[in-house]
């Protein structure tokens, strides 16, 4: 991996966290590590590099299938668009996010239109467009229960019927679309769900 390929500044590289099963950025000189690209990263190059080398389909077998709606946990995916007023205005593809909240909403509504029109699934769009590191897992957040997520996110996710995609959800992290999984499993190749 070269800095020309990744768009990272010299001495920075992409590594993989075994504990989180996600890539992160590491400076070999200073030993600094971070989840978001360092300042000076070329946003287009890192976005392309990460999509090619660090995106994987959500793997249902990587989660315990013992969880279900009965034990109070659900499984969902999301697509996050951050803006300059987000609590951390940076992401795996952009070291500094400068768009306004209105611009973020416009972008997310465009994604929502494509999802509802059947052009792409939320997971497929999340892989390249989500500002959350869960993009590498098609937006899959795994199982979570009450109190595990920000209040607005949790309320929206738990209010969804299995297989349903939310409208725009605002949190301190940015603006989201959320998809609740059916019976906690993906069932067919185009990432639509059935009971």
TrEMBL record:
The gene is SSP1. This is Peptidyl-prolyl cis-trans isomerase. It comes from Lepraria neglecta. SMART domains: WW. GO terms for cellular component: cytosol; nucleus. One of its GO terms (molecular function) is peptidyl-prolyl cis-trans isomerase activity. InterPro entries: PPIase_dom_sf, PPIase_Pin1, PPIase_PpiC, WW_dom, WW_dom_sf. Its EC number is 5.2.1.8. It catalyses: [protein]-peptidylproline (omega=180) = [protein]-peptidylproline (omega=0).
């Amino acid at each position: 991996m070269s800095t020309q390929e990744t768009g990272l500044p010299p001495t920075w590289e992409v590594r993989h966290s075994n504990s989180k099963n996600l890539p992160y950025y590491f400076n070999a000189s200073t030993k600094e590590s971070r989840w978001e690209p360092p300042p000076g990263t070329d946003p287009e190059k890192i976005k392309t590099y990460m999509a090619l080398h660090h995106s994987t389909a959500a793997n249902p077998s990587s989660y315990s299938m013992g969880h279900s709606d009965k034990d109070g946990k659900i499984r969902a995916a999301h697509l996050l668009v951050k803006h300059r007023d987000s609590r951390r205005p940076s992401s795996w593809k952009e070291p500094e996010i400068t768009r306004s909240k209105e611009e973020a909403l416009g972008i997310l509504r465009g994604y929502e239109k494509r999802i509802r029109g059947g052009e792409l699934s939320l997971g497929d769009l999340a892989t390249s467009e989500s500002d959350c590191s869960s993009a590498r897992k098609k937006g899959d957040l795994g199982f979570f229960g009450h109190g595990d997520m920000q209040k607005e996110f949790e309320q929206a996710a738990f209010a969804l019927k299995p297989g349903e995609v939310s409208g725009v959800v605002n949190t301190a992290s940015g603006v989201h679309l959320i998809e609740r999984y059916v019976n906690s499993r993906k069932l067919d190749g185009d990432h639509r769900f059935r009971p």
